[in-house]
Fold each of these.
Amino acid sequence: MARMCHVISSQADPYHYFISDLENEHGVWRLMMLHRLFAWLWANDRQMPQFLILTENIENEESVRFLIEEVAYWGSEREKAELHTLFLSPNYTYRTAALHAVALLRDASQEQAALDSYDQQPESVRQEVLRVLAAINSGKHVDFFVHAYRTSSSKETREVALACLYSYGSAGRYAFEELRGEVLESKTDRVLLDQIDAMAIINQMRML
């Protein structure tokens, strides 16, 4: 709390103690408090931290992940535009955080970089790439979702690809229904498509 008060009150060097603080382990509540602090600073036109520069001096993986994702909310335009440079970070957690941030921003200018990184990603991060494409929703990647579904050996990746395809506008829904017609002989795939369809309907009902 003392350090948070220092950030709020200091005009000269508000983030002097942040690096040592972020090396500590954090619970969810503490990260929520930091998120609220950044929101207050942003709303009051106070000096914001340079999130990506901070990450270069911090070893705590969870703190770095948090700071990368905070770029989507409070980062400068320059920081937001540089998120794609982390898509092939040596650390898979940082790759996921950067992709998540771009998905939150729905930044079409970084869509191609996400797509280009797909083949170089492990399966868990490939799923985040698919979610980025779905969030940006440019309408250009129906065939890519179908390809990901057909070629992935991971059930989770295939499921994410189908879910993204289902929500990808009218062209995506049409392709989804075409796939449903193709898998009549495969009970497993038919059940998977039916489950995605059912969950989408349930989510629509919740919004009513």
Amino acid sequence: MKTKFFTLLVIVFSVFSFAQANATPEGLAIKKSVSYFVNSIKSKKIDQAVNCIYPKFFTVMPKDQMTQLLNMTYNNPFMKIEVQNMKFGNIEKPELISGEYFSIANYYLTLKGSVGSMDENMKKKIGEMLTSKYGKANVKYNASEGSYLINAPMKICAISKDKKSWKIVFAEKENKSQLTKILPKKILDKI
């Protein structure tokens, strides 16, 4: 019995140690930048969130248009979206390409979208749109609250010149055509 307990303890310690060793300074810096971006959106500081975006992205989408898009999404009076939780998935080791470091990072947001002020037809259309984007298993409707609970898998590309200060670009397949103008092919191939 003591041997089994000791073996289990060693296994748990090893897994914990590996997880800590896997937390590189670059990975931690990327998490910090992404968390800052998400927390800016959560606290409705959209201009602050826009400043987290890779400046070259504004050559394909003007900064004021990006600000407007985020405002329409997160400050919409018809569908209030609240960020409830955030978890990180895989963060790739940064690759140096043409003087900049690039890393693909996955994270997961739990969002609550309140649609109580909409008519039934609009609620259904919103539900269909959310299901189309995130998948049926990731979208739940709560009729008593008039809200959708969304588990949103997200992918970004973090970019840095010094591996300390990171800017982000949404690295979703539907944005790939825009990203061809600003990201190296080697990184685009991972999206």
Amino acid sequence: MQRFTEFDFGVPWVMSFFHQDWSYEADTPAELVARRLPDGAGEYALAVRRDARTLLDGLPSQTLEVLWTAGSQYGPSFRQTTGAEWTRTVVDVCDTWLAARAEVPPLTGADTEDGLAHRDAVVAEIEPLGFLTAEVRRALVDCAHECTPDLALRVLLRVVEYTPGASLSQEQYKRLEGIGSALHYGEFVVQNVEFLVADD
């Protein structure tokens, strides 16, 4: 079994859109998301919507703001919106995108894996990461408990990638690879943070 893509997907994939120059691509965060959804690849929109709905159902707005802020380099800003409103906007963008296209088959098989059997392992990787603030660690642990371990792990990988001063030991990276393999991730999901592995 394998996911529909070898690369990152869902909400952490959307988080990666918000780099330093994103405002040159679109006028609003919602427009950016809509522009980045690839034509003919409904799985991307379905995966983003699934993650965003899971976040909305499981976490309070403030926790959503913590995760979006930690997992994105530049935005979206929460001065004029809330974490819940923005996450709902992401769902709406996906709904609009999907409604404008022919029937998109639902996600099945590996693409519906929540990783519930791996919750303790995911939480065990989050809690010792001292380069993350206590607030971010708490939000990630809440995500693992109240959403899904799969989503929490993918958000964790994105957060780690963007956290200044982050580093991983060889052992940590191998454990993350092992959990990712158990969750049927493609080759490049965990590999995205391999550059942070410290030389022994």
Amino acid sequence: MTSLPDHTVPAPPSAPPPIWFLTPDGFFALPLAERPEDRAERAEAFVRELYSRGDEAIWGPAAPYFAGLAELLGNTGVSYAALGLFSTAEESLTPDGEATRHESAEGAAQCAFTLAAVPTDHDGTEPDVVAQGITAALSKEAFNDVRWLDLPCGPAVACITWHQHQITPEATADGEAADVVTAQIQVHIPFPTGPFTAVFTLLTAYVDHWPQFCDMLEAILQTVSFVDPAQGTNTDAA
């Protein structure tokens, strides 16, 4: 799995401490920032990376849209958000045995990926207790698929949900109502220092590729750390 540089989600003194993780190629981080001018600047760079073969006719209208989306997400407590865009073309091998890279024009699957920190009443001595409480709370909903995870950074709880949505005729290309199925997985990881729980969310409507998205998220979760990887191994893992 080819990874980008690790993501550090910093925080002001009153917010959660930093958390680190790696994402694979194909993730485009949305321009989250406190100041509007910073969001606008990051949005300009974001659209040029996302639409690398576009021009000002595409970049101009897209940048304000994504800047506004970043503001909305930031107001909900999200500290990291990314759009995942991946080719669905079948891989073939070159003469030297390496897989070729395909353009997304040959077929692409998308997902939304976010991280938020939710306040939870615990200190650094009881992340297992918090995870057990999260498991019990989520298991009350019959349609939740709840699973306990033992990650290198500590205990975690995964919750998978599927939803069916009806798209109105006004929003479809053929003018007919359509049903869309989405799949979501949320992973709750209590901070070992308390009193917050990190919540990673991956959402996609490309459910035909759900196993691949789950594998990708699993790989990301293996890299989560509450200690700067540059300063040594995470010693807070359970």
